[in-house]
Inverse folding.
């Protein structure tokens, strides 16, 4: 990381551990040559949109499956949860094929939908086990007062789930931000790609610009690191819940 | 109540069907076919036959298992020991926990770039350090003898996840157990060997499982650092399948994909059995 502040000349001459002269030219390259900020905008869209989508859909599905027992409820829960244990890279070609057939290949909305789907199992598993641990009395009282299903979900379940939603949101944001495999598979034009692909591009396009690529790597890793430092408690709780439930 | 419940589950069920169930069906179906995205003819077990006769496939299997083994053998024991030490709440443990966890939230792509610079044959830190002590450097990532180990070294020490899970589990162990052991005169080491470790069985198994699931699909670090080279010495199964996909051999790629899922399934079942995950610890 120190090297990202070196000039290309200093890096290439291999002289000195500390940057001297101290320069931001690597960072300048990251924005002017690679236009990193455009990738950052895409990645933010995917991470925020995908997380919001996954949380909404997962809460909708997790609530009834945590609260009611009905025919098939057990197998639906098992199926949704099992998706968490599948090494998804094995499904690369089929995912590409389906995205293409649906007209979602290489499109920003397509990627948002895809990431929402990718984060759905994790969000579902964590939310369901959280909701199963909530006492049902409040909902029953609301039901007796005549509130309908979706009203109860919105006015009672949603506010109560806030801590669980927060933990899943942080973890999902970081996972989408760092996602490389499917971004590489499902987007081709630069204007739809995420920051991880920008980094890979840095290596191939500017093979000799090591300081630039290190500056890019530094910028890209800063986001999840800072997010983690601020929301440490949520990240840890989210990962613990996701892994053990 | 039935109608709103069905409506409520529907979006999740639709996403699940489109992005998990359908791809799964396509994967298995087309693994028995010659398919380039358009023309589709069933060819039986041909793809699998070609696969097991390809030495590169076996290299990919060996490398994938090698990477998984390295990450488990290094990450899990180190993580457990550090987790136990940090649980003693010595001064500064919070800061240390944060520092040790940070590498976990950094992406594989960012890692790859940092290590590419580190291993750089002429300017990288590694060879410069070796030169200082008079040793000869190497072109680590382009030497068939060192490339695989060099790649493995990039993720072997990411132990934050294990540390966090271990600490969470230790926090839930009743203090009385240790107090009782102490009155019986057990040393600190004995207490951890006899009480902590057996109670961590479930969590250790979970860490092994999560690592395995990640490692079986390992792609980004290898893709960026070496693209599987030199001479396929670092190729993984995911990368091998991806190459077939790029060549338009989709059916073949899916035979490899199916193999990845099957290996994953076998490993999951084995690890769950071995660590008796899901059973009560006491």
């Amino acid at each position: 990381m120190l090297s990202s502040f070196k000039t290309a000349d200093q890096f290439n001459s291999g002289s000195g551990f500390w940057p001297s002269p101290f320069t931001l030219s690597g960072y300048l390259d990251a924005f002017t040559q690679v236009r990193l900020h455009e990738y950052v905008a895409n990645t933010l869209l995917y991470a925020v949109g995908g997380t919001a989508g996954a949380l909404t859909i997962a809460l909708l599905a997790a609530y009834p499956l945590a609260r009611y027992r009905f025919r098939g409820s057990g197998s639906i829960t098992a199926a949704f949860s099992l998706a968490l244990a599948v090494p998804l890279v094995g499904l690369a070609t089929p995912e590409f094929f389906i995205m293409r057939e649906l007209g979602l290949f290489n499109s920003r909305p397509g990627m948002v939908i895809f990431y929402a789907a990718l984060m759905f199992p994790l969000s579902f598993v964590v939310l369901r086990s959280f909701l199963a641990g909530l006492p049902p009395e409040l909902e029953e009282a609301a039901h007796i007062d005549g509130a309908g299903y979706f009203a109860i979900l919105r006015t009672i379940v949603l506010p109560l789930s806030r801590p669980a939603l927060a933990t899943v949101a942080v973890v999902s944001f970081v996972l989408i931000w760092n996602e490389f495999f499917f971004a590489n598979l499902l987007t081709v034009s630069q204007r739809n790609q995420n920051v991880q692909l920008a980094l890979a591009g840095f290596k191939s396009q500017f093979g000799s610009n090591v300081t630039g690529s290190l500056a890019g790597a530094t910028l890209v890793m800063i986001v999840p690191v800072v997010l983690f430092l601020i929301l440490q408690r949520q990240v840890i709780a989210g990962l613990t819940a996701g892994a053990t439930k | 109540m039935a109608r709103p419940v069905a409506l409520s589950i529907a979006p999740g069920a639709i996403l699940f069907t489109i992005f998990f169930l359908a791809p799964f069906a396509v994967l298995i179906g087309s693994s028995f076919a010659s398919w380039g995205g358009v023309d589709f003819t069933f060819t039986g077990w041909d793809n699998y036959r070609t696969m097991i006769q390809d030495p590169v496939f076996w290299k990919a299997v060996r490398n994938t298992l090698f990477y998984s083994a390295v990450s488990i053998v290094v990450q899990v024991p180190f993580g457990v020991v550090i987790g136990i030490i940090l649980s003693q709440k010595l001064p500064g443990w919070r800061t240390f926990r944060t520092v040790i966890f940070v590498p976990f939230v950094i992406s594989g792509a960012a890692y790859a770039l940092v290590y590419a610079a580190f291993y750089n044959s002429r300017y990288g830190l590694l060879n410069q350090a070796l030169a200082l002590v008079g040793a000869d450097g190497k072109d680590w990532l382009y030497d068939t003898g060192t490339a695989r180990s060099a790649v493995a070294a990039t993720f072997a020490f990411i132990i934050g996840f294990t540390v966090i899970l271990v600490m969470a589990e230790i926090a839930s162990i009743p203090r009385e157990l240790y107090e009782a052991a102490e009155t019986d005169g057990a040393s600190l080491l004995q207490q951890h060997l006899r009480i902590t470790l057996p109670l961590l069985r479930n969590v250790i198994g979970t860490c092994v499982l999560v690592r395995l699931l990640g490692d079986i699909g390992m792609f980004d670090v290898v893709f960026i650092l070496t693209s599987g080279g030199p001479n396929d010495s670092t190729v993984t199964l995911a990368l091998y399948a991806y190459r077939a996909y790029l060549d338009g051999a989709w059916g073949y790629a899916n035979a490899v994909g199916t193999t990845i899922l099957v290996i994953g399934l076998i490993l999951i079942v084995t690890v769950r059995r071995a660590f008796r995950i899901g059973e009560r610890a006491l």
